[in-house]
Amino acid sequence: MKLIILENYSQASEWAAKYIRNRIVQFGPGPGRFFTLGLPTGLPRDHPESYHSFMWNNFFKHIDISPENVHILDGNAPDLQAECDAFEEKIKAAGGIELFVGGIGPDGHIAFNEPGSSLVSRTRVKTLAMDTILANARFFDGDLSKVPTMALTVGVGTVMDAREVMILITGAHKAFALYKAIEDGVNHMWTVSAFQQHPNTVFVCDEDATLELKVKTVKYFKGLMLVHNKLVEPLYSMKDMGVERSQSKKPYSD
Amino acid sequence: MPSNKSVSDAPIVQFTNCRILRDHQLQREDLWVREGKILNPEKLFFDEKGSADVQLDCKDSIIAPGFIDVQINGGFGVDFSLATDDFKSGIDLVSRKILSHGVTSFCPTLVTSPPSVYHQVLPQISVRNGGAHGAGILGAHLEGPFISKEKKGAHPEHCLRTFEAGAFQDLLATYGSLDCVQIVTLAPEMRRSSEVIRELTKRGICVSLGHSVANLSQAEEAVQHGATFITHLFNAMLPFHHRDPGIVGLLTSDKIPAGRRVFYGMISDGIHTNPAALRIAHRAHPKGLVLVTDAIAGMGLAPGRHTLGQQVVEIDGLNTYIAGTKTLSGSVATMDTCVRHFQEATGCSVETALEAASLHPAQLLGIEHKKGTLNYDSDADFLMLNDSLYVQATYIAGEEVWRQDVSGM
Q: How many angstroms separate the CA atoms of B157 and B327, rounded?
């Protein structure tokens, strides 16, 4: 894995954004060649104001994505398992997930794969853990009774199939989960640990999130920052794409 | 990119690179319009999987709802209180010209006139939507003749009337028809005014208090019967007195029925009210302030003599007086000048100044669900302004109906 340690939340966000941009540009997407970006699914569509509005206001309205290319799991579907299976098919049809970007829960979960989730699970309905319900209360004006208790989620196995995985972890309250994810063993109680067995994982975090890690680990990866920063500098743009592709360098891998 | 619009085939326009006035704030958001209404882009994206057909770069302009002028007596040589043969073309001329002032809807106002004038003129005023032909007409504002002799201002004394004889029936006979009437200004201290106010309110007509010597309790009683507006606050009413604030006291009265708000018109041209008085009113009751022009026929023309109904008025710079006197009669202010002056005099935010000319008049007339805001599903009547609040372009129902000439002033 690559562990990228930035000073604070803004710097971590910016590094991650630049990395994703470079990856998309270097991939060279076009008609019929989709760069499939996977994101953790949100809460059921019952509450459109929360998840759909969140995604619209924070992402979709700022970019020129075609609405047909947006696939969100529908929590209101009549047959939830069929909806999940269809979602897996859609991923296959788009050529598989190129890059999955996710966060980590305080209980170490990826997407809504709560502790105890199978590490080879696929997209399915999950009952949410109390920790997750508490964390999502902010979308419901802090009213716990309004937070849904079930969610459709991509499975750990689904994310493991992605060609690359990026996990963003910021804040001291995530520090223990990060420790469990990268310094302890692979364990279904801390599902993010599954990515220790993925060939291309990038963990982007801020100083606070490293509070539970060994000094040795932190120093080692900070020492690699000079090399890791080559992934975000220079920052490519689609306009340069024609020129760059002829001189394309394989993205750095460890 | 092909857009799959399951709801409508009409073109979708996305105005980008602008700051829009929404939820009382200027926000950096795009404005989406379809079929003359403001469109919700999130619903379009998720429910219809649609996207914009046309994207327009607004070069960082401010986009605000179109201004609504609820008191305008004429302009550009046209006098709404004069029953001329070409009255219709006169009103069309004014409605077209005021587009450049940012006005997208207005209430043509008639000052105190003999019944014959009302009978001839009112049938020629019809409520109609705006467009390239001009600003929309919301209905007539009848200022008088049921007003006080002591506070007639520029209104002709011989045409004043009372409610003594037949109250509402007399009003109906005077005006002829109330079909296209939106606002009536009257003096509430007149006997039997309460029944008239109740009857007008029942018919959905906004009752305004003005040209009156009412004290505060008479004014409060009028509000309880349904009055919701004050015509040009401070002008043509008793001055504020600390033991009887008069009509001005309505701004802070505690006898306003729950859930109702009293609005008040202000002519903020720098002449009708001292800026300090404007500030006092604004600070006392900011949510009720409605900017009006009270413009007369001479607005937009060179200084000189013009008519205002039965009177002759003389324009000298920005001042308009009854010829030979120092009695103010209307103004030659334009709505955008009033907005700028209001913002300067009170030091209020740009949002507040713009809302005083758009949201508040819409709330007064009970039409804020479709006019006066940029909320989803509202009529797409809006303006593009620069940071100094000069109108650069006017849009009605999503179509551009006026644009600032780059070479012009």
A: 14
B12-45: pLDDT as tens digits: 999 999 999 999 999 999 999 999 999 999 999 9
A231: which 2 tokens?
Answer: 């992934």
Answer whether CATH 3.40.50.1360 is correct for domain A2-27+37-239.
yes
Q: Can you tell me the distance from the alpha carbon of A95 to that of B20, in angstroms, rounded to the nearest whole number?
A: 40
Looking at chain B from residue 2 to 31, which residues have their Cβ under 8 Å from any Cβ of chain A? 3-4, 30
Name which of A53, A61, A72 to mutate to probe chain B: the one with the most chain B Cβ atoms within 10 A of its Cβ: A61
Confidence of residue B409 (pLDDT cuts 50, 70, 90): very low
Give the CA radius of gyration of chain A.
18
User: What is the interface pTM, i.e. ipTM, of the complex?
Assistant: 0.81
Residue of B nearest to A74 (CA): B46
The CA distance from B235 to A88, in Å, is 72
**What is B66-365's CATH topology?**
TIM Barrel (3.20.20)
| Helix, strand, or coil (residue B335) | helix
Domains of chain A by residue range: 2-27+37-239
B377 is catalytic: no
What pLDDT is attached to residue B4?
Answer: 47
Q: Would the CA dihedral through A49, A51, A57, A62 be positive or negative?
A: negative
Q: Return the pLDDT at A146.
A: 78
List, for residues A6-25, the tens digit of each pLDDT value: 999 999 999 999 999 999 99
The beta-strand segments (E) located in B66-172 are 67-72, 74-75, 78-79, 103-110, 136-137, 140-143
Expressed in angstroms, the distance from the first to the final Cα of chain B is 40
The class level of CATH for B13-64+373-403 reads mainly beta
Q: Which residues contact A94 (CB under 8 A, 6 or more apart)?
A: A34, A36
Q: Does B88 touch chain A (CB under 8 A)?
A: no
Binding positions of B are 143, 154, 211, 232, 235-236, 243, 272, 328-330
At residue B315, does pLDDT exceed 90?
A: no
pLDDT band at B95 (very low <50, low <70, confident <90, very high): very high
Hey, where are the domains in chain B?
13-64+373-403, 66-365
Q: Which of A187, A182, A156 is nearest to A2 (CA)?
A: A182
CB of A48 within 8 Å of a chain B CB? The answer is yes
Average pLDDT for chain B: 93
